[in-house]
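Project standup — Tuesday

K.O.: blocked on the structure for the chain from last sprint. Re-posting the sequence here as requested.
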Amino acid sequence: MRPSGRDLSEMRPVSIETGVTKHAEGSCMIRMGDTHVLCTATIEDRVPPFIKGSGLGWVTAEYGMLPRSTTSRMRREASAGKQGGRTVEIQRLIGRSLRAGVDRVALGERQITVDCDVIQADGGTRCASITGGWVALRLAVGKLMKAGDVISDPMTDPVAAVSCGIYAGQPVLDLDYPEDSEAGVDGNFIMTASKRLVEVQMSAEGSTYSRDQMNQLLDLAEKGVDELVAAQLAATGA
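H.V.: unblocked you, prediction finished:
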């Protein structure tokens, strides 16, 4: 029934390759099916003005899609002179999600910026960015701890994200683009490894959904996040 032939509760193949860039304190390439995202983490000894002097750290994110990450070339946002609304919304989501798994007191007064660049898109780019972004962040924090710059581990709980939706009347896990473009209901679920919800984005796209269907999607999301967290921990050796 699914275009890919997957079972309703089956994820796309997931792989996370770490140490893919030379200069970043933490980096990985995450592949969820045909969606590929390069994630890098940069440590800076500064924080935004609104928390300067508070002793709190900060985690933020930037997101972008390369011109040929999709079937036709898109214009670089830099050439347009501003970011689009979708880009701003997604990078704020990534930052909020990653901060949910960080003890900002333990991090100390420094900033870590996680850059997520979509190399190839086939649905679920924001979810892949959050999942891979956590890996890059984990690796960067590991370097801080190894250097003795951070005493207690500020990473409190892995954070991962997965899409779920109702496609052809059935709840399905981890939508690829053909499903996403036709789904009656589309949702993104961000959770911690301990199954605490960080954010849920659900919308009807031409079809409404029931409370029971929402619960089914949440159950699928928990299964997907469990699998993603296992991949994160394997990639980071945690």
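K.O.: great, moving the ticket to review. The radius of gyration is 18 Å. The mean pLDDT is 96.
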